[in-house]
Design a protein that fits this description.
Order of helices and strands: HEEHHEH
Mean pLDDT: 83
Radius of gyration: 18 Å
Strand content: 5-15%
Helix content: 55-70%
Number of helices: 4
Largest sheet: 3 strands, antiparallel
Length: about 140
Amino acid sequence: MIQRIQTLYMILVVIVAGGLSFVFNIYTLEKGGDVFAKDDLLYVGLFMGSAVLALIAIFLFKNRKLQFVLNRFNILFHLILLGIFVYRMLNLSGEMENISEKGIGVILPFVSIVLLVLANRAIKKDEDLVKSVDRLR
């Protein structure tokens, strides 16, 4: 069901996690080099895992409960990714090659989390609607 709003939210998560994470830099080094998600295997794994999980959840529109749970796991992936970003930016900035500024790629997990929460709200609303209709029978 592509016309459902939660599907559109999850498609946006696939675009943000799967595509935009390689377009926007995570941070810039003092020497002038930009560091993208593709430069670190952990970032690539978490971003691609999140994109694949959102893509799988899109096609589970008949099983709304499983779709809801997969979105929760996806939110957990993004929270882990956000924690790794915060840890590396704050604790390892002196040990790494002198990070001069943080890029816009750091806020991509925030955007994905917001979109996944909106998708979960829409899924919950659909589930409540189906339950109310079943109650009337």
